[in-house]
Amino acid sequence: MKTRTLGHDGPQVSALGLGCMGMSWGYEESARDDDASVAVVREALDLGVTFLDTADVYGDGHNESLLGRALEGRRDEVVLATKMGLIADDLAARVIRRDGSPQHVREAAEASLRRLRTEVIDLYYLHRVDPEVPLAETWTALSELVAAGKVRRLGLSEVTIAQAAEAHAIHPVAAVQSELSLWTRDALGAPADGAAPAGDLVAWCAANGAAFVPFAPLGRGFLTGAITSPTFEAGDFRGGNPRFAAEAFAANQRIVDAVRAVAERRGVTPAQIAIAWTLAQGEHVIPIPGTKKSRYLHENIGAAEVELTADDRAELDSLPAPVGSRY
Ligand SMILES: NC(=O)c1ccc[n+]([C@@H]2O[C@H](COP(=O)([O-])OP(=O)(O)OC[C@H]3O[C@@H](n4cnc5c(N)ncnc54)[C@H](OP(=O)(O)O)[C@@H]3O)[C@@H](O)[C@H]2O)c1
Question: Could you tell me the distance, in angstroms and rounded to a whole number, from the CA of residue 24 to the centre of ligand 1?
Answer without folding.
Answer: 11
